[in-house]
Amino acid sequence: MFVTDTLLHRLKRGCETMAYPKGPPPALPERHGGALKVDSGHCVVDCRTCVPACPTDAITRMEGLPVNLDLGRCVFCSACVQACPAQAITQTGDHQMAVTRREDLLLGNPGNEQVRLATALDEKLRKLFGRSLRLRQVSAGGCNACEADTNVLGTIGWDLSRFGIQFVASPRHADGLFVTGPVTHAMVLALQKTYDAVPDPKIVIATGVCAISGGPFAGHPQVNNGVAAILPVDLFIPGCPPHPLTILDGLLRMLGRLETKIGRIP
Amino acid sequence: MSDLTHFTLLANATSVPWSDVPAWPVADFIDAIGAEITRGARLCSLFGVPEGDATQLVAVLAFDADSTLAIGRSTPLTGAFPSLTATHPQAHLFEREIWEQHGLTPEGHPWLKPVRRTHGGAPATGEFFRVDGGEIHEVAVGPVHAGIIEPGHFRFQCAGEEVLHLEIALGYQHRGIEEALVGGPHRTTLIQMETLAGDSSIAHATAHANLIEALTHIEPPLRAQWLRSIALELERLANHTGDLGALAGDVAFLPSSAACGKIRGDFLNLTAEICGNRFGRGLVRPGGCQHDLEPALAARLLERLITTLADSGQAIAWMWDAAAVRARFENVGTVFPAQASELGMVGPAARACGLVRDVRYDHPVGWHRFAQVPVTVWPDGDVFARARVRSLEIQRSGEFLCEQLGAPPESDLFEALDRPAPDTIAVALVEGWRGEVCHVALTDSVGCFRRYKITDPSFHNWIGLALSLRGTAISDFPICNKSFNLSYCGFDL
Q1: How far apart are CA A238 and CA A261, in angstroms?
Q2: Touching check for A9 and chain B: CB below 8 Å?
Q3: Is the pLDDT of residue A136 over 80?
Q4: Smallest CA–CA separation between B144 and chain A, in Å?
Q5: Where are the alpha helices (DSSP H) in B251-294?
Q6: Are residues B341 and B429 in the same domain?
Q7: Which residue of A15, A160, B176, B387 shows the fewest CB atoms closer than 10 Å?
Q8: Subunit contact B148:A188, Cβ cutoff 8 A
C-alpha cells in the first residue's frame, strides 16, 4: 500500500529538473542585484562617497584615477549602489560573473565596466574534463552558505550530474578542487594535502568572496585571504554566497559548454 | 527562584552598567555559579574579560522558568581558578576556552585541551582519549569529509561496529571573529555576524542587532521586529527541511530525500524574495531592517509559502509513513534527558530529550512578545526524536508564518542609533534553528566593544553528538550527525 502511494506521489511530482541551459535560466529573485557595473565616467570629480560605504573595502579611489571596485572582495550588500550620488555603480541583475583571471573582477577602468567572463580551459583539458569533471570540495573556513548553495546543485532541481560534473569523496578520484572559505591557517595543511592527492592535471576553483580574497575576514591574522595564497586558481566565482546559477554558469563556462554570454531574460 | 540570587538580573536583549555587576573573588564566584546551576539555572556563557595583565571571568546564567537572565563576575585574577566542570559539566568547553584565550588554568578540569588554537597549519588537537585492548580499533575521520561540508576531526574508539567513545576536535574554521570585534563595531562587523555561521545568518544578525539596540537603549520599530521574526522562521524551515531530507537520504529513502533537497531551496528562495539573498543577508541591521515586506510582496510570499509547506508536509509524511525509516531512527544515537540537562544542551537536540527550553518562549523579545510559536518537545532523545521535533517545528513555524504574514504592524522600518552606552554589558539570546544563539557585549569608556562573546548553539551541543554515539554502531554516525547538524564555523568563530 505504502510503496504504491510513495511511487504515485513521486510520479505526480513529475520531472522537476530545470530546462536551463537549453531553456532560459531560472529567474533570480527580484531583489537580487546580480553583478555590479561601474561607469566611472559618471563619477563626480574627487567624489569618494562609495569608498567608506563598502563594508569589505572592495572600493578604492586613488587620486586622479577612476574609482575601482573589486568584485572579488564584494559581498553584494549594495551599500555602494545606494551611496553613489551619480549612479556610477549599478546592479545589472546578471547572474554571470565567474572569471578566469583575478584581475578580471576589477571594475572601473574605461573598458572594464563589467566583469570579463571566464574563458574555457585549453583544448587538452577540455578534452579530459569537458564531459566528465570530478571535483573534491574543501571548505577552508567557509561559513556553510557557499557549501549549502553548492550542495543545491546536486538536488533534483539543478541535477548537476546531467553535465557530467560530480562532487566526489576522495581527492584520488577528483580532477580538481572546489574551495570555499578564506583558507584559515588551521586548514592550510589539509588543503595542501588534499591538493597533492589529486592526480595531475588538476584544476582549482575558488568559490565565494572568502575564497577569492578573504572576504569579510580579509586581513585577520588567522586567515590567508583566499585560496590563491596557497594554490594556483583556475576559476573565481564571486558572491556571498554565489547564487547556484552563478556557480553552475562558472563551471559550464570553464568547460566550454557556454561559449556566449546569455542575455538577461526580461 | 531567581529573586534569591546575588547575580544581577536582566531580561533578554537588555543591558546593565558594568559597575552594577557584582564581583566575587574567583573561588566564591565559581561556587556561586555552581549553586545557581544546581538550583536550576543554565550556563549561557562563561568567558574572560582582560583587565590589565589579569582577567575577570563573567558568567551569564538563564533562569528559564522566570524568563530572567543573570550576570556575575569575578575580581581580576591570574594563574588558576577552581574548575566548575567536575561538578557541573556544562562549563567544560567554556573553561577550556578561558584557558586557551586568557592562560588561566581551571584546576581539576578533567580534559583540558585547546579549543581552536592553531599549530603548523592545523589545530593543536593534543592527545585523544584512547581505549586500549586487543579488540579495539580507532577510526579517524576528517578534517576533510566525504561530502560538501565544513571541516572537523572525529576520532572513534570502536569494538567491532560498536562505538565506545567519540572525541570531536574542531578549530579548523577559526577566523578570529571575536578578536576582531574588540574596538568595534567596525564597518565589517555586521557582515561578519551574517557570515559567522552562514546557515544561521538571520539568527546571528538578529542577536547582534538586539545587542546594539540594548546598548543604545532603543527599541527597533515594530515592523522590523515582525520582519525579523518572519525571516528567522523561514531560516528554520529551510534548514529543518534540508536536514530531514538528508536524514532520509542517509537511510536510503530517496523519495523524501530528493523532494526535501528541492523544497529547502524553495524556502531559501522565499527569504531571497524579501532581501535578494537566499540566506537573508542584508536584511537585519541594528536599528531595524533594510528591506520592507510590502503588502503585495507579503501576499505573494504567503501564497508561495502555503504551496511550499504543503510540499514539505507531503515529502516528510512519506518518510514517517515508512516503517523502514522509523525503524532506522528509533533507539539510535540516544542522549538521555539527564545528560542533556547536565551538559546544558539547547535547541531541538535538547527538546528531543524532553527538555522544555526555547528562547522564543522562555525569554521572548521583539515580535515573540506578541506572537508565540508553541514549544515542540519529544521525550526519547534518539535520532527519531530529533527528526520528529524538527518535523513538528516545520509545521508550527509554518503556522506562525501563515498567521503573521497576513497581519503586519504599521510602522517605520528603521530607528536611528546613538553610540552604544559606555561601560555597559548587554546580553541577547535568539532561538536560531539549532538552538540558543547568545551574544554578549561589554563596552569600554567610549562605547566601543571591550569584549564581545559569541556562543553558537553548537558550542553547547557538540558534546551531545559525541555522547549519542556511545553504544551505537559506527555505521549510524551519519544519521546521528545529521540529526544534530551542528555548525563548525559557529563553534570555531
Answers
A1: 17
A2: yes
A3: yes
A4: 7
A5: 254-275
A6: yes
A7: A15
A8: no
If asked whether residues B78 and B212 sit together in one domain, one would say no
Closest residue of chain A to B151, computed from CA coordinates: A139
What is the nearest CA distance from B40 to chain A, expressed in angstroms? 34
Cross-chain Cβ contact B118/A54 below 8 Å: no
Domain boundaries, chain A: 123-254
> Grid coordinates 590563491 are at which residue?
A228
Dist CA B145 CA B132 (whole Å) = 26
CA–CA gap between residue B69 and residue B76 (Å, rounded): 23
What's the pLDDT tens digit per position in A21-49?
888 888 888 888 899 999 988 888 888 89
Same domain, B165 and B81: no
Instruction: For A175-204, write each residue's pLDDT tens digit.
Output: 999 999 999 999 999 999 999 999 999 999
User: What is the three-class DSSP state of B130?
Assistant: coil
What residues pair up with A38 in beta bridges, in sequence order? A89
Residue type, B443: T
pLDDT band at A259 (very low <50, low <70, confident <90, very high): low
> Is A30 in CB contact (< 8 Å) with chain B?
yes
Q: Evaluate whether residue B452 is within a structural domain.
A: yes
- B113 located within any domain: no
**Within this chain, do residues B323 and B446 fall inside the same structural domain, yes or no?**
yes
User: Does B129 share its domain with B87?
Assistant: no
Question: Based on the domain organization, do B144 and B56 belong to the same domain?
Answer: no
The per-residue pLDDT for B18 is 95
**A9, A55, A241 ranked by CB distance to B187: nearest:** A55
pLDDT at A261 over 70: no
pLDDT of residue A264: 45
Write down which residue in B169, B188, B204 finishes a domain. B169
Q: How confident is the model at residue A266 (pLDDT cuts 50, 70, 90)?
A: very low
Residue ranges of A 181-240 with Cβ closer than 8 A to chain B: 181-182, 184-190, 192, 194, 210, 215-217, 220-223, 240
Rg (chain B; Cα; Å): 22
Q: Which one of B100, B117, B144, B196 makes the best mutation probe of the A interface by having the most chain A beta carbons within 10 Å?
A: B144
Q: What is the pLDDT of residues A209-223, one digit of tens each?
A: 999 999 999 999 999
Tell me the fold of A123-254.
Rossmann fold (3.40.50)
| Helix/strand/coil for A76 | coil
Nearest CB neighbour to A143, from listed B242, B275, B489: B489
Q: Does residue B328 belong to any structural domain of this protein?
A: yes
Given an 8 Å threshold on Cβ–Cβ distance, is A148 in contact with B198? yes
Q: Does residue B153 belong to the interface with chain A, where contact is any CB pair within 8 Å?
A: no
The predicted complex's ipTM stands at 0.92
Please give the full DSSP string across A166-216, using - where no structure is assigned.
Answer: EE-S-GGG-SEEEEESS-BGGGHHHHHHHHHHSPSS-EEEEESHHHHH-GG
pTM of the complete model:
0.95
- Cell numbers found for residue B278: 537566499
Query: Are B220 and B288 in contact, with CB atoms under 8 Å apart?
Result: yes
Q: Is A242 touching B (CB cutoff 8 A)?
A: no
Q: Give one word for B257, left, alpha or beta, with left for phi > 0 and alpha for psi -120 to 50.
A: alpha
Q: What's the CATH number where B444 sits?
A: 1.10.645.10
Query: Is residue B465 classed as helix, strand or coil in its secondary structure?
Result: helix
B251 or A261: which leads in pLDDT: B251
Q: Which residue ranges of chain B lie beneath pLDDT 50?
A: none
Contact assessment for residue A103 and residue A87, using Cβ atoms and an 8 Å cutoff:
no
Per CB-CB distance under 8 Å, the chain B contacts of A33 are 276
The sign one gets for the Cα dihedral A96, A102, A108, A111 is: negative
Which residue in the block uniquely carries the three cell numbers 525571516?
B231
Domain check: are B8 and B152 in the same one?
A: no
Residue span of the structural domain in which B48 resides: 2-107
Residue among A144, A160, A173 with most chain B CBs within 10 A, to mutate: A144
* B150/B67 same-domain check: no
Specify the number of domains making up chain B.
Answer: 3
